[in-house]
Amino acid sequence: MLEYLAMTKNISLINSHFSTNLVDDLVPGIPQAAYIHIPFCRRRCYYCDFPISVVGDRGKSAAKMIKDYLAALIKDIELNSSTQQPLNTVFFGGGTPSLLSPQQLGQIIRAIALHFGIANQAEISMEIDPGTFDRDRLVGYLDAGVNRFSLGVQTFDQSLLQVCGRSHTLADVMQAVNIIKQLEIDNFSLDLISGLPHQTLKQCQESLAQAIEIAPKHLSCYDLVLEPVTAFGKQYQPGKAPLPNDDDTAQMYRLTQKTLTAAGYEHYEVSNYARSGYQCRHNRVYWENQPYYGFGMGAASYVAQKRFTRPRTRREYYAWLEAGAIIEPPEMSATDYLLETLMLGLRLASGIDLTQFNQHTLKVIWSCLKPYYHRGWVEVVDPDGNLLDLKHRDSISNLSGRLRLSDPEGFLFSNTILSSLFEKLE
Q1: Rounded to an integer, what distance in angstroms lies between the CA atom of residue 277 and that of residue 266?
Q2: Cβ-based neighbour number of residue 348 at 10 Å
Q3: Pick from 201, 89, 219, 218: which is nearest to 146 by CA?
């Protein structure tokens, strides 16, 4: 997730020398979610800094590359096996997981089921790209156990697809959608990106209208993040032409929120919208700061209050596995956990539960957030979801309910709000 990755990088920049009385004993439980990284792509998109391996049209050499990686991936799963809890969610991301055959994907799912267990009614999600699958291939993924698909459209404008360096065309997008519709797949999502070079507000609106017409149960709508190592990061400067300026990108965000909520989608997270009952259960694990396993090169895990990212290249990843896949990350401090709980939880429209924090923590939080409350960017609701009037309160201590950012303005200024919050807690 583009925004999620950008925000989690900020954690490493935070000085963690805080008073331990800011938090109670907030200890996450045993992981019941797993992310599986499939790194292969036909080409690297111009905004992408994910750990991937470009296979292009290399035929036999690509087939061997994928076969070797799958062997390593399954070894990774075996070395870290656990029978403590069956998994409630499994997410195949990338890269382009739909470059795997159904048989290869099924091989991974069987390994997960054998070494961890998969719960009944588990959500098994898979990212798929237009132009990388046909009807038979998608049927094969369904037969292997996938029950949720995320289609990487990014934009319905052909010229912008080319600007992004995407390997698919608009015709590929529509063909992919037709296959999904023919198979009557109910639980699927579309990914869109705004703030692209040369993108106009009209183009954004037209993509949203096309997405609504397709009627997916879920939409992820990300703002472009310029990473320094990417083609876009080297070529463009934030806010400067041909990128939309800050006002235009803010208008795109407001337009997206207004258009999709009017069409009946719930804006449940900064960048995500869903019909009732179709929120992404796996991604909520991240936003609720719950533990999860990560397998594959560059995959992140959060287990036993420790975060660890596997090596980002195939060569380093294979060497790490051969050396025994030793993981010795430092244990996260209670204050680090507090900061991540705030950063991730405030991305959710439901916000964070006030009762999980002690009174001193709430006092510190409110002293920072009260100015933003008066701007209408921060809200507090009671257990029934009713807005509380806190204009004359100096504290939110002894309140039950939830703290959240307003939609859309609070979400738009979330980085400003969170930066202030981190400085106050420092």
Answers
A1: 10
A2: 19
A3: 89
Per-residue pLDDT of 5-60, as tens digits, reads: 333 333 333 233 233 344 444 456 889 999 999 999 999 999 999 999 999 876 67
Give the type of residue at 353.
Answer: D
Over residues 319-348, mean pLDDT? 91
Residue 378: strand pairing partners: 405
Say how many CA atoms lie within 13 Å of 16 toward its Cβ: 15
Which CATH number is 26-287 given?
3.80.30.20
Cis peptide preceding 311, ω within 30 of 0: no
Contact 63, 120 (CB under 8 A): no
- Cα–Cα distance for residue pair 338/398, rounded to 1 Å: 19
Q: Alpha helices, DSSP H only, in 226-382?
A: 231-235, 246-262, 281-287, 314-322, 334-345, 359-374
Cα separation, 335 vs 328, whole angstroms: 20
Long-range CB contacts (within 8 A, 24+) of 108-113: 108/36, 108/70, 108/73, 108/74, 108/77, 109/144, 109/145, 111/74, 111/77, 111/78, 112/34, 112/36, 112/77, 112/87
Write down the domain spans for the chain: 26-287, 349-425
State the pLDDT confidence band at 397, using cuts at 50, 70 and 90.
confident
Supply the mean pLDDT for the chain: 91
